[in-house]
């Protein structure tokens, strides 16, 4: 049986936030292009935008411990 995009999406949305974040990070990592031509100012703007997102809804962010656990799990 082949899963449909809607089934995969529904299953992914039911994951705990840390697992959903890890999935999104992995998918974006596989789809992203390198930032080779990105200036320091552009990278700083990206970081500032991300920080603003986290400030606006802290519940959507991963804890430091969860992020470290994710990094450790990826390095094995």
Protein architecture, described:
The chain has about 80 residues and is an all-alpha fold. It has four helices and no strands. It starts with a helix and ends with a helix.
**Could you spell the SSE succession in H and E letters?**
HHHH
Mean pLDDT value: 82
State the share of residues found in helices, binned by percent.
Answer: 55-70%
Indicate the radius of gyration in whole angstroms: 15 Å
* Number of beta-strand segments: 0
Number of helices: 4
Report the β-strand fraction as a percent range.
under 5%
Unreliable residue runs: none
* Biggest sheet statistics: none
Quick take:
The chain is mainly α and 76 residues long. The protein has helices spanning 5-13, 17-31, 40-56, 64-74.
Q: What secondary-structure arrangement, pairings included, does this model have?
A:
Layout: H1 5-13, H2 17-31, H3 40-56, H4 64-74
Sum up the structure in keywords.
single chain; 76 residues; mainly alpha; 68% helix
């Amino acid at each position: 049986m082949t899963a449909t995009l809607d089934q995969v999406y529904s299953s992914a949305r039911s994951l705990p936030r840390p697992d959903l974040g890890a999935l999104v990070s992995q998918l974006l990592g596989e789809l992203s292009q390198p930032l080779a031509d990105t200036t320091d100012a552009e990278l700083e703007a990206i970081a500032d935008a991300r920080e603003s997102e986290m400030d606006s809804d802290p519940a959507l962010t991963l804890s430091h411990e969860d992020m470290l656990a994710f990094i450790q799990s990826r390095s094995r």
